[in-house]
Amino acid sequence: MKETIKKMLPSKLIERIQRIKTYHSLCSAYKKEAKRFAISYAAPACTSKTQIESLLIFYVHQIEKGFSFDAYQYGRGKNALHNIALLIKELAAVDVDWRNNIVYKDAVLALGEYRHRHMAAGRDISYMTTLFPQDINAAIIESSKTKYPNISLSYADKKDNDTVPFSVLVERRHAIRSYSDKPVCRKELEQAIRLSLRTPSVCNRQPARIRIFTDIDIITQALKIQGGFGGYNMPPALMLITADLQAFMGINERNEGYVDGGLFSMSLLYSLETCGLAACPLNTMFNDLAATETRRLLHVPDNEVFVMYIAVGHFRETSRICRSQRFGLDRILMN
């Protein structure tokens, strides 16, 4: 009976009914995912060790970014310092060995450098010292006496990027936010994109889409909406990676665009490094207004989802980078 009725109905009506059913199924699936996320994410009042560490890493990274600016901005990061102080206290409550926690140690290292730079410049940092108890301040003072780990890269060390083993290239790649004045031509970017075309995707459907922007006015407007590039000069080139939802076939693939787009983006970052170009991935986790403004500015259709931006330029002779400590295998490997 069901098949008989389907044969009697116009194909466009059947398609519309199917899309309505898919929409309701998606709403149900996303409702479950929303509940899982709402329970698990690192909210300001979180209590688990991983949540607290994640927030702490976030705010420490804000302090670290300041060290990579061309001109250091004294006094910057007061809100981050306030949150770091609160989170260290919360970490101590859930981790009996918190003083040996790598996230805490990295925080103290960054705070020590922050203190060192301000003290060397004769700046008042009472707003910082009053945030921390005596023992933490003592650790920060001790850290300020040691040399902060190298946060500079030399272009001379990257000139053979196209010939070194992949294991070396992986260690060399860092997010670079400041670039030389040399323009980036489209041909250079296309070379890196071409090297990334072998990136795997679901059933080889290849949903990744790339847009290249070199107009400084467009780049400035786009990154103003994005909001995460403050403190640096605009990059000479900006790439937007999206995923085309038309490549997918069912609600089970609703998130596949982000997976395939992310895989392609990582391949592209390594390809840019191989081609001798400096790059920095920038998130596109937009709210509705920012997404609408970005789509309008960059002519992105609704059938594509945002994956990330990549800022691109030529290396300077030396470049400052964020230290960005990485976890070891013992933290990542789950069995």
From TrEMBL:
| Native source organism of the sequence | Bifidobacterium dentium JCVIHMP022
Nitroreductase domain location is 171-314
Q: Which Pfam families match?
A: Nitroreductase (PF00881)
Q: Which keywords, in A-to-Z order, does the entry hold?
A: Flavoprotein, FMN, Oxidoreductase
Gene3D superfamilies according to UniProt: NADH Oxidase
For the keyword Flavoprotein, the answer is yes
* GO terms for MF: oxidoreductase activity
UniProt lineage: Bacteria, Bacillati, Actinomycetota, Actinomycetes, Bifidobacteriales
Protein name, per record: Nitroreductase family protein
What superkingdom heads the lineage? Bacteria
Concerning InterPro entries, the annotation shows: Nitroreductase, Nitroreductase-like, Nitroreductase/BluB
